[in-house]
């Protein structure tokens, strides 16, 4: 069950096209998976439309009636536009991606198998910072680290814990330099996440600290 969602301000900025493209992508992908946020977004968009119309100088009753009718239409009609599903393949496993991420399945330049039962595939979004699919096998973990910037993560499949709490499929996770965490999973099916990071990770403990000078290379 999804417990973590983008906040109202993030959804509002998304609806107004004010987010960075990486942030917009991950919010769009979450919204593909989350009925609650999809409905919230519909309401925000309706409100924005209403505000835009209120700014019109000359009232047009026919137009207002048409708009009112549109706004009263049910938010979720149950009709899904069909699209060709692309699956992400890794080590004999297949994952269905949210619609907004589908087109990136082809843009992966292969998976890197990293220590800690981790697989990572970088996605070139043509933006600052970086975007990755990361898959943790059962028993896999990322060395304890903090962030110099902000890390947004969307759980695409499976579940994991980071010593702070547990995360489930669909959860939208925001982590900043205030958080030190150690993601790991004990789920049989492992865990696939998509993340956007604006600065390199900073490892804080054990042997992984030695990675810091290389974290730009290793995790970038
Ligand atoms: Zn949501």
Automatic annotation (TrEMBL):
Domain ChrR-like cupin residue range list: 135-195
Pfam families: Cupin_7
Alphabetized NCBIfam families for the sequence: anti_sig_ChrR
Protein name: Transcriptional regulator
Protein source organism: Lacimicrobium alkaliphilum
């Amino acid at each position: 069950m999804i417990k973590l969602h983008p906040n109202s301000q993030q959804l509002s900025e998304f609806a107004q096209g004010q987010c960075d493209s990486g942030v917009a992508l991950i919010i769009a992908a979450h919204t593909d998976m989350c009925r609650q946020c999809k409905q919230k977004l519909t309401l925000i968009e309706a409100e924005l439309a209403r505000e835009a119309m209120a700014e019109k100088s000359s009232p047009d009753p026919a137009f207002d009636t048409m708009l009112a009718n549109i706004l009263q239409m049910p938010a979720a009609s149950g009709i899904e536009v069909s699209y060709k599903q692309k699956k992400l393949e890794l080590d004999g496993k297949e994952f269905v991606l949210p619609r907004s991420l589908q087109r990136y399945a082809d843009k992966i330049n292969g998976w890197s198998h990293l220590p800690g039962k981790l697989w990572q595939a970088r996605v070139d979004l043509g933006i600052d910072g970086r975007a990755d699919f990361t898959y943790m096998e059962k028993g896999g973990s990322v060395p304890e680290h903090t962030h110099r910037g902000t890390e947004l993560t969307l759980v695409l499949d499976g579940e994991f814990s980071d010593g702070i709490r547990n995360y489930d499929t669909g959860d939208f996770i925001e982590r900043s330099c205030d958080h030190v965490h150690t993601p790991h999973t004990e789920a049989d099916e492992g865990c696939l996440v998509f993340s956007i990071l604006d600065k390199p990770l900073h490892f804080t403990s054990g042997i992984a600290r030695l990675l810091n000078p290389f974290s730009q290379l290793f995790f970038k």
